[in-house]
Amino acid sequence: MALMNRRQFLQQSLGAAAGVAALGLSSCLSRGERPNILMVVTDDQSYPHAGAYGSAMVSTPAFDRVAREGVLFRNAFVSAPSCCPARGSILSGQQFYRLREAAMNHTVWPTQEIPLYTDMLAQTGYKVGYTGKGWGPGNWEVSGRTVSPAGQAHNERTLSPPGSEVSDIDYAANFEAFLDANTDDSPFCFWAGVIEPHRAFNPGIGVKNGKKLADMVVPAFLPDTPETRGDLADYAFEIEWFDQQLGRMLAALEERRLLNDTVIFVTSDNGMAFPRAKGNLYDYGTRIPLAVRWGRRTTGGRTVDDLVGHCDLAPTILEATGLRVPGEMTGTSLMYHLDTRASGQVDPLRDAVVFGIERHLPGSRPEGAGYPSRAIRTAEYLYIRNFTPDRNPVGDHPGISWPDDDPVKGYGDTDGGRSKSAIFEGREQDPMRFEAAFGKRPAEELYKISDDPFQMKNLASDVAYDSTRQTLSQRLMTYLRDTRDPRVLDGDDAFAEITRRFPVLGSNTKPVGGAQ
Questions:
Q1: What is the spatial distance between Cα 277 and Cα 228, in angstroms, rounded to a whole number?
Q2: Which of 191, 195, 233, 328 is most enclosed, with most CB atoms within 10 A?
């Protein structure tokens, strides 16, 4: 998503809205020209954990095939590093903060109308469905919808998983059943929401299945210990389990001669569930894998360096299927990137992305309070604005509520696991990593990516970078105002009513309509 000034944003919004009003939802493409859509979304997978990115700790031949035969994006980012708002942004093409209740985890889908690419395709003749985890975790039924925002659930087919913490949903078999039920050969739109590699992990499942601790690459914000390497091996195993399901989905398309007529997106909702990753605005929470294949149209074997985001996927799908992009969508189509033969920096205007978070898990702080933050990421820098630096960024300790299997019993925005426990238990021997994971943060953060790829050295108070900090701050705030971020327009009251309604896990959010 290239950043734009207010005039450009309003022109795009008004022009697109007028087009939709004039044309309704009819497509400018004939039925035979309209491609199928397959959106594959893993749960909690960071860049660079795929073979196509050069990772030595995972083997992902199916993802690598999509990348090799399509376009591999090296700088793709979430709208928010949290499941529900991230998935909402993919579906809506809007920044998470524009999604009202769905701007946070464990809430509800808003009753007000939000244009979704799934709904628009369904209204123009597409068969729309999903398996696994669609939009969520949250309750969409209270909005009056009859199906999930991701489509009709298809979770009937199951299998015997390799571990108790791996889902028994047979994603590929459910996709095949969906395809086989499409007897009139309508174009289809399917969301495969793979639940892996979401925690919890079966401890030791990675080593048991051939992963070697020596091959694990430990990021600098985690302690390099056998416990951490074992945790990473379990995470890597679940990525490989997902990749097997993706391979079966590709085979199903190929067998039915649908592969080249299907636009395939493979990405993740947010980064890995480790300290200073998921739920945080650093790269391991926000930078995610993305590969796109469209055999009939796209020249493969290309790697793109442009900074793009989840909000760009819905506009891409709508343009690919011949539909106008609604004015509400803040993302920008990637069709130029799919059509060009170029690699590297393809569009010079795509030099930054904006993302943020309001609240990850309710119950991490009193009265459902979150840790609202926004950030702008360029190729050179990451700038973060923390609006409530007096709060703990990953939740209080001891916490108000936490899963029974988390021995830390606090810092609830970080999922329980061996790495979290290791940092907490080693806080006296390794205070630097403990503070990085669980300590308070200043109102502003600035990191130089080339010198600090894990964002451990905050330069915001360094006078040598004062000009850079001010420029990025102004650019961020201008974008937030132009895209009508309630946090910037309305201040502390922006999301207060929502947090009061959903102060703890499970409050009015019982999942419905299939796996969440």
A1: 14
A2: 191
Q: What is the DSSP letter of 39?
A: E
What CATH number has the domain spanning 33-340?
3.40.720.10
Crossing angle of helices 226-255 and 418-425, rounded to 10°? 160
**Half-sphere exposure of 9 toward its Cβ, with a 13 Å CA cutoff?**
18
Structure tokens at 11: 């022109």
Distance CA 44, CA 109 (A): 21
Six-digit token string for 337: 């990137």
Write out the residue limits of the CATH 3.40.720.10 domain(s) in the chain.
33-340
Q: Tell me: the pLDDT tens digits for 366-395?
A: 999 999 999 999 999 999 999 999 999 999
Q: What CA–CA distance (Å, rounded) separates 516 from 484? A: 29
Question: 3-state class of 203 per DSSP?
Answer: coil
- Chain position carrying tokens 């939740």: 395
Tell me which long-range contacts 367-374 makes (C-beta under 8 A, separation of at least 24). Answer: 367/499, 367/500, 367/503, 368/499, 368/500, 368/501, 368/502, 368/503, 368/504, 369/499, 370/104, 370/495, 370/499, 371/413, 372/487, 372/495, 373/281, 374/476, 374/480, 374/485, 374/487, 374/488
The torsion angles phi and psi of 391, rounded to 5 degrees, stand at -90, 165
Q: Please give the DSSP secondary-structure letter assigned to residue 197.
A: T
3-class DSSP state of 444? strand
What kind and span of H or E run contains 386?
strand 381-386
Q: What is the pLDDT of residues 25-81, one digit of tens each?
A: 667 776 668 999 999 999 999 999 999 999 999 999 999 999 999 999 999 999 999
290, 308 contact by CB (below 8 A)? yes
E strands, 174-231, are 188-193
Burial pattern 252-270, b for ≥16 Cβ within 10 A else e, equals bbeeeebbebbbbbbbbbb
Distance CA 380, CA 351 (A): 10
